[in-house]
Amino acid sequence: MHWSVYLVLFRLLSPLHVGWRKVGNLQQTRPYLPGRNLRGALAARLTRDFGEKKDYQETEKKIDDLLRFTYFYPVAPTDIQNFYSEFAAGTNLKNKELLWPWEDPEKFAWLFLDSYASTAISDQRTAEEGALHETEFISHRTKEGKQVGLIGYVFVRNDCSLPWKEVLSRLQVGGERTYGWGRLALWGRKPEKLKVMEGRIKCFGCLVYPGEARDDTFADGPVFSLEKEEPLLAHAKAENVECQGAIEPVVGRTTKNGAFFGREISAADICWVPGSKVKQAASFCLDREGLWKRTRDNQAR
Q1: For a 10 Å CB count at each end of the chain, is N or C smaller?
Q2: Is residue 58 helix, strand or coil?
Q3: Residue numbers in the chain where pLDDT is lower than 70
Q4: What is the spatial distance between Cα 217 and Cα 90, in angstroms, rounded to a whole number?
Q5: 153: closest CA among 274, 42, 39, 69?
Q6: How far is the C-alpha of 199 from the C-alpha of 194, rounded, in Å?
Q7: Which residues of 44-72 are buried (b: 16+ CB within 10 A; e: fewer)?
């Protein structure tokens, strides 16, 4: 099995809230878009445009078989074309215009995050007691007034026939979608297929082997190879992984019927959070929901 690699840069058209945790009255957002969220949005749009509601699960299964998604991170590039070209050529983790949310959380929050306060109204047209809440979001404009985008990679199996590229400018992700939040459109170029040299490529500066990982039944997707103290770029299942960082349960909303989007809660995966640094060199397989799972280190050489 071989995977082609596409660089995708979205333009964020409206605020984006990716549900995380509640602190007091504030519902915090994750500072990135997980692969699971993009997978769900793509399944919904493909079903809506090319199928029927009853086809949702079938579409989702095809996506699971044929596509893999990295996490997507906020960026606000000054020169779109140069920025895109640098990533397409294999940029490193220290790209000056890619601010990782774990490197400088305060600067990241000031630049990209904002919040919206609201309250429920009683029958007497007054605010209900205890109903005030605040929703944090990734803004589509930085505090400096620059357009915000989301950058990441999509891995596509060579026999994929899904029209996934055709719907990328019609996706809506995250929470508060009924208020118009989370709208995405392609920014700059269309998804660009990257050139794999000697069976490997760099994504976010991380060495990736998109070919089949030999002798490992768990590695049914691309393999990311990290050196000692390099950061995880997605949630990584904690089993057999030693990191310096934090662990949290990762759950998601699943759809069993196209008419009840996100009604069911998936089983929790215990994971190291993105930005955690591995204590020793390790390889990870990118799974169907964008999570990383430890694979045998001798697969990526």
Answers
A1: C
A2: helix
A3: 1, 52-53, 91-95, 119-131, 212-219, 253-265, 296-301
A4: 28
A5: 69
A6: 12
A7: bbbbbeeeeeebbeebbebbeebbbbbbb
Domain count of the fold of the chain: 1
Full residue range of the structural domain in which residue 153 is found: 3-299
Which residues face 253 on adjacent strands? 265
Burial of 215 (C-beta count, 10 Å sphere; 0-12/13-18/19+): exposed
Distance in angstroms between the alpha carbons of the first and the last residue of the chain: 18
Q: Are strands 192-193 and 243-244 parallel, antiparallel or unpaired?
A: unpaired
Place of tokens 């759950």: 251
Q: Which of 72, 29, 87, 69 is nearest to 289 (CA)?
A: 69
The whole-angstrom separation of Cα 249 and Cα 241 is: 15
Q: Which residue has the tokens 């005030």?
A: 132
The tokens for 190 are 């269309």
> Alpha-carbon distance 45 to 164, whole Å?
9
Burial class (CB in 10 A: 0-12, 13-18, 19+), 214: exposed
Q: How far is CA 68 from the centre of its chain?
A: 10
Task: Please count the CA atoms within 13 angstroms of the CA of 188 that sit on its side-chain side.
Answer: 24
Distances (CA, A) of 261 to 18, 44, 99, 118, 286: 16, 9, 33, 24, 25
Condensed to tens digits (0 to 9), the pLDDT of residues 41-90 reads 999 999 999 876 678 889 999 999 999 999 999 999 988 888 888 888 77
